[in-house]
Amino acid sequence: MERRTIGAGALEVGAVGLGCMPMSWAYSGSRQRGDESLRAVHQALDAGSSLLDTADMYGPFTNELLVGRALKERREDAFVSTKVGLLVGEQHIVANGRPGYVKRACDASLRRLQTDVIDLYQLHRADPEVPVEETWGAMAELVRAGKVRALGLCAVGARGGRRSGGLYDGTIRQLRRVQQVFPVSAVEAELSVWSPEALDTLLPWCEARGVGFLAAMPLGNGFLTGTLTPGQGFEPDDMRARHPRFTAEMMAANQPIVVGLRRIAARHGGSVTAAQVALAWVLAQGGHVIPVPGAKRERWVAENAAASGLRLTPRDLTEVAALPGARGSWE
Q: Which of 58, 101, 121, 168 is catalytic?
């Protein structure tokens, strides 16, 4: 697999990563199976998808434990990214950016991940009650202590919200502030064919400063794979059950996007899928961009990894640009 670098430290990873969240969190709980997910992680590492993206809140904690089972056997093959800053309660999620908490959380993540060092430690969300510089300073101390190799920031933006200018202005302001404390190696934000908003300001900001960009949800929470059926319904614990683009009406209205991806895929041969075209489009947005599709099955992991070898033509990219914008239930 093609290798790409993250940040000024030139940390190398496979061009397509693996989002581990669906294995333990936010998607249909009845379909989460630990051993099957563990095999998916090994499949990713076999294929060169070395970046494993997790967080302490996923589960909570169970996702890191799962990734740790793989890291125990194959630490040298993996680039592990985890996150700090969010606490999960019974019916709510709150931010905690207090320096003492950040340091304790890092130690706990290291134990669960069964490793001595975290390759990329990301601030999941800034705590509104703690200056972000204080949180970032505590994270920088972890780098100096040898517990973390590099730092990243997850973007704040209304996922699935209305298209509007300035969606990532708040994130860029945070980035400017923390850059004064310690270098930012990566930013993680949503980027896909149906959510391209990061292209306006956030992606250029990262490119101009040598900051890696981890493209979250590059397959549109599964919609861009073309495997979901309008009206199929989702389990209550699946975040798509409450997503404005996943009502039966909106899934039907957004089908032309999938049709367009399939049309492009067909030109590249019968084995190429809509999902691979969607990932190849993300890869084409810059050499500093690493899509991190979530998956929990070996089959999907292998398919996603193979997208690193697909090169879209100028005609393909023009057709993607001409696809209709995604619609949500607010419209």
A: 58
